[in-house]
Amino acid sequence: MPQWWFKDISPAALTVDYGSSGHANLTYDSFLGAVKFTKGDQTVDVFEEGYGDAPVDTIEKGTVIELEAPFVRVKASDWYKLFPNKIDIQSGDEFIWKNLVGYDYFANSRNLVIRPLVNNVVSTDPSEWFFFPHAHPYDDWDLPWDRETQRVLMVKFKVHPIQSGTRKGHLFRRGV
To answer: Where are the alpha helices (DSSP H) in the chain?
Structure first.
């Protein structure tokens, strides 16, 4: 492993459907704020009466990963590509947001790559990239209308493990 395995400072670009579909390589880089990759191991403590509140063991329940991307200056056509099952475009920039109850995120997930931006150029070095094979976006916004707040459309991504094959259980990798 190199001495550093990710860039210390740089903005990011997200590429959805990296090299895998008819919508391949949808790259977004208009963000205001940090694109965040949050990873947390979920655990549960095991207790025995004789040890009181001190756990005698801890069991791993799995790893939860979420990505956040604070989008700005988004075109309706880009939004439709990011949320193809959730939006209907009527004409031009008019779109209708649908309420999807019972919608399956894993079945509709797509791969996603986070790539650093240096001097406003997206990295072409795959060793710097983070690859998520099953990510699905969902939105989480507050839209202010006032005289000084720029509107940011927060998009989060649920990341799911690979569920078959030789990479079963894998969540992400660095290097593509």
So the answer is: 76-82
Distance from C-alpha of 162 to C-alpha of 165, rounded to nearest angstrom: 8
What would the DSSP string read from start to end of 82-112? Answer: HSTTTEEEEETTEEEE---SS--TTTT-EEE
- The 8-class DSSP code of residue 164 comes to S
- Alpha carbon distance 157, 171 (integer Å): 13
Per-residue pLDDT tens digits for 136-158? 999 888 888 999 989 899 999 99
CA 105/CA 160 separation, integer angstroms = 9
**Nearest by Cα to 112 from 80, 65, 159:** 159
C-alpha to C-alpha distance for 159 and 112, rounded to whole angstroms? 9
Confidence bin at 10 (pLDDT 50/70/90): confident
Count how many residues are written for the chain: 176
Token pair 């956040």 in the structure block, residue:
68
**Phi, psi for 76 (deg, rounded to 5):** -55, -40
C-alpha distances out from residue 94 to 64, 73, 87, 89, Å: 35, 15, 10, 6
Query: Considering the chain, what is the average pLDDT of its residues?
Result: 87
- Which pair of structure tokens corresponds to residue 35? 């694109």
CB within 8 Å of 73: residues ≥ 6 apart = 30
